[in-house]
Amino acid sequence: MTTETLLWLIPLPPVLAFFLIVIFTNKNRALSHTIGVGAAALSWLGSMIVFARALGVHELGKTPFQSTFNWFPTGAAWFKVGVLIDPLGAAVLFFVAITIFMIFLYSVGYHNYGQPAGDHDRKGLPPHGATVTDEHGHAHVVPSIEPMYSRFFAFLGLFAFGMYVLVLSDNLLTLFVGWEIMGLCSYLLIGFWYGKPSARDAAVKAFMTTRVGDVFMLLGIAYLYSATGTLSFREIFNNAGFMQALATTATPILGLSAAGLIGLLLFIGTIGKSAQWPLHIWLPDAMEGPTPVSAMIHAATMVSAGVYMVIRMFPLLSLDPRTMTVVAFIGTFTAIFAATIAVAQNDIKRVLAYSTISQLGFMIAALGIGAYVAAAFHLITHAFFKALLFLGSGSVIHGMEHGVLHVQGEHAGSPQHAGSPQHAGSPQPPQQHIDPQDMFNMGGLRKKMPITFWTFLIGGFALSGFPLVTTGFWSKDEILADAWGHGHLAVFITLAVAAFMTAFYTMRQITLTFLGEPRTKEAEHAQETPWTMTVPLMVLAFFAVTYGWVGIPEHFPGLGGLVPNWFHDFVGHTLAHVPEAPAFSWVPLLTSLGVALGGLFFGWLYYRNVKSAKEDVFQIPVLKNKWYFDEAYNFLFIKPAYWFSETFVYKWMDQWLIDGILHSFGKATQGLGAAIRKYIDVIVVNGFGDLVGYGTKDVGQGLRPMQTGRVQQYMLAALLTVIVVGAILTFFLAA
Amino acid sequence: MTVLQLIFLLTAAVILGSAAMVVTAKNLVHAALWLIVTLFGAAVLFAILNAGFIAVIQVVVYIGAIAILFIFAVMLTRREMLDRGPQLNRGWWLSAIIAVIVFGGLAWLLQGWDGLTKTAPALSSGFDSLEALSRALVSPDAYVLPFEVASVLLLAALVGAVYIAFQRKGEE
Amino acid sequence: MIPLSWFLFLSAALFSIGLFGVLARKNAIAILLGIELMLNAVNINLVSFWRYNDPSRIDGQVFTVIVFAVAAAEVAVGLALIISVYRHRNTVVADEIDLMKW
Questions:
Q1: In total, how many domains does chain A have?
Q2: Most-buried pick from A137, A178, A386, A718 (CB within 10 A)?
Q3: What is the rounded distance in angstroms from the CA atom of residue A151 to the CA atom of residue A18?
Q4: d(CA A322, CA A320)
Q5: What is the CATH number of domain B3-83+129-171?
Q6: Mean of per-residue pLDDT scores for chain A
Q7: A641 assigned to some structural domain
Q8: Which residues in A lie closer than 8 A to residue C22 (C-beta atoms)?
């Protein structure tokens, strides 16, 4: 079939999986995960075919795969939407498809498929283990299957659908549709364990924060549409007239041109979605969701979508230097800001969360200084090694939970807990002895979980930028080279420092988790995880090592020129003017070597002797508390919002004013009714009615004595009447 | 003043006087007797008016039957001491006023009638109203029906009177 | 000769006297006496008119005869009633016979 048809079909399997699981197979776990993983595999297959074909097209940037149709009429014309695969799209599609597939597969093991149902498990809370008694009568506590197993795959499917729609779309509107679908799914998945209040709050926080960004993005889209009448990327970027008009039209906001304002507004959407400062606050809290979700959101898809959108709109943003400066500043600041916080975090996933924010800052900074290809390159490599790291951390946590359950089971059976003999053999409700995610409770896991260790090590080195054999080195080096080469000194220095800190905290993480000796009993009893979890780790590790070699700069000493810089040529051709690679200079190369190796070394050196958090000198309160931004936002925005709705609108306006008016209407009407009743109804109406009755009776009674029964008096009366009437007739009425 | 007029005036005085006595006599038997006088006077008037048959009927029926009946009735309903005391009821002054007003009214009505002072037309000689009366009473194109009805009426009255006043054996 | 008015005035006066008797007498029989006077006044009227209007028309006399008959009947029944009432109630005073009311 044609590539265009395939493009239309790629997003379909995940969304079909979503509907099928939700409507039909929710109760059947095996069927649900088969549908889910199968759908991801199908989409991956389609994406690979498209990618392969895309590689074969010469000058894909000029003649991309695209297909559009008329969606809705806009006056005389139609609004067209469609699919597009140009070089950038193909490269992004490649990594998106594979990471999504790996995450689907990983989820099967992560949620303990095949394990028994837990003893106290309820939907909405993480599973806590099941007691099984083996043939010797020993009771073990084993991990239990996730009660909402099928639902997870349904949501992942919807999430995948949203990302595919975003990557494949050829216009801002459907991109925004995919963007919002992912926003919804991030809410659903972060709050997956809805029984935990922290998870609920985190879900709302994520949604609201990204919403703030989305509002501005929508404004940008609206402005762009009103300025050009279209939202299709190629129609705007390839139309010199549009670009010229956008660059020169001035707007009243801050003296920006139209392009600059639109770019800035769109970029604010990315600030929200990719968790840049100041809207970074949701991403660490999003660790409440299950680890595959964290991998999905923070590596493979959602945050990448933000950067992807900025890369897409790069031609527009680059028209206004002021917007570019803002972008560069935000990116650089975020990079170092998040790195400082990551140094002080103890939760294994939190460190990765802040490192994600920091690396996204690198990408944004790269875009801000015009390093188009470098940013795209780092986006893709980061996706690989960050997904690897997250899934690896999930594996670690899984292993640690195994240990926790083991220890718990021991406690249940041990004599000092048998105050009541009938409790022996049945598990106590899980006491939170230790946090399986706290790195200071780990240690020595390299022996217990070797595959996880080696893959995690590869990922960590990639993140730090370990030279030559990891992708992170190549992409980070290219960013630094671009910064140095184009003279952005402040950016260069700041990013270098951030890179040093990145290496430092990464080695800290690896040392505390895997090296040394186990610090707790739970760590001693950790176990390696099943193949459904370790195979994705290995696949991603492969890419984390090799992908960098497709982007070796031409003038790199020794290796450059051996392999053509395929990435630069391929992705660079997306733009109308292929950006030039910066000239080679030793400074950025040595700097990146220095910061990477130095950070790794110092991290290992310091932390191999640190036994507990109390000895860690970097546990500074201001860093641990994330520079108090959450508290600041709470004070500045959340509390006023609550005040506004609870007090101003609810108490004052609604209850006092509106209800007051209504109640007074009610009371007035009641009073009016009572008054009418009292004064008119009772007195006048009833009175009249009674008057008629009583009056008649009284008149009758008054006239009664006339009837005496005496005939002569009757006759007298008759005669009198005759005389009177006769007199009247004769004298008064006779005409 | 002709003789006839004189006789008339005399008769009129008698009539009115005895009538007044009828209505004011304490003793009821006297009242009945005075009624007889009045009836005689009326008979005389009938004679003056050339209605001889009527005059005779007046005497025979009225005086001979009705007045006698009255006397019988009076006697049958007498009680001692009943003839003492006032025979007029309490409101008699009002009745007198009414009577006067009625008379005044009638007189006034009569005043307004222009045929009031007509004189009697002459009668042909040998005028005899009796035959005409008899014929009228029994001829089918005249007044036989009222005549018969009057007979029935008398019958009914007779039966009724008997029935009403009948005393059963042992009844008080 | 005698004008009609004399007869008419006479009968009017007789009628009024009879009326007075009817209205003012206590004894029920005396009331009947008054009624007789009134009837006689009517008779005089009738005959006067017969004589003075057209004596050849015998209708006036016929009327008078009928009045006779009616008067007789009425007296008979009336007296019978009074006697009956007297027997039951032992009174002929009209004021005491007052059941014809509520």
A1: 1
A2: A386
A3: 9
A4: 6
A5: 1.20.120.1200
A6: 85
A7: yes
A8: 712, 715
